């Protein structure tokens, strides 16, 4: 990596970190590109060299969220535990991270961004690390006969993803006034109990 490329990546990183901090602090719609540029001591040209709009910052946010799962949550999943126990822990750690580190307003904006017809939604990207993590767990659970035999690993993943989206959307609608962590525990207990082999 040459020096110019390193500088460009450092600028991109500074823009992402500053923009996300501002979104957390003041709300996405209350932050302008001009403010991000001013706060990072960069130029509009530098901003638009990396992002077409402030919404595009969220693509990077998605990648960082998924990378957090890989780097910090997966290592905590003890292979001595059942798959359902590991899924329960994963979901608990995931929702704690989203509630405490991402926040409801950024989560709401992520959903708003994903509903735009201007781009392909990152939510549906089959190469997301999140899907890989869940599929490996659910495939193991299927092979171990932890789940009812009427479900494939792919179907279990699909159910979990749909529930994740639903609870995050509901939490965003409530503007973070309900506990995401408490609500997800109730929801995913019902789902995992329903999927569990008798």
TrEMBL record:
Keywords: DNA-binding. PROSITE patterns: HTH_TETR_2. Residues 32-51 bind DNA. InterPro entries: Homeodomain-like_sf, HTH-type_Tx_Regulator, HTH_TetR, Tet_transcr_reg_TetR-rel_C_sf. Residues 9-69 form the HTH tetR-type domain. Transmembrane segments: none annotated. Pfam families: TetR_N. This is TetR/AcrR family transcriptional regulator.
């Amino acid at each position: 990596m040459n020096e110019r490329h390193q500088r460009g990546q450092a600028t991109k990183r500074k823009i992402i970190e500053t923009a996300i901090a501002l979104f957390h602090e003041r709300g996405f719609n209350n932050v302008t590109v001009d403010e991000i540029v001013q706060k990072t001591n960069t130029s509009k040209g530098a901003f638009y060299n990396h992002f077409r709009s402030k919404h595009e910052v969220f693509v990077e946010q998605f990648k960082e969220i998924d990378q957090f799962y890989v780097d910090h949550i997966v290592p905590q999943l003890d292979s001595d535990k059942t798959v359902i126990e590991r899924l329960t822990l994963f979901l608990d750690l995931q929702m704690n991270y989203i509630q405490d580190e991402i926040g409801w307003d950024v989560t709401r904006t992520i959903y708003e961004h994903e509903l735009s017809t201007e781009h392909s939604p990152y939510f549906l990207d089959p190469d997301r690390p999140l899907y890989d993590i869940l599929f490996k767990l659910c495939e193991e659970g299927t092979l171990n006969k932890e789940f009812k035999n009427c479900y494939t690993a792919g179907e279990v993943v699909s159910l979990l993803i749909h529930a994740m989206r639903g609870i995050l959307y509901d939490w965003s609608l409530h503007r973070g006034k309900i506990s995401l962590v408490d609500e997800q525990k109730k929801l995913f207990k019902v789902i995992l109990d329903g999927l569990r082999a008798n």
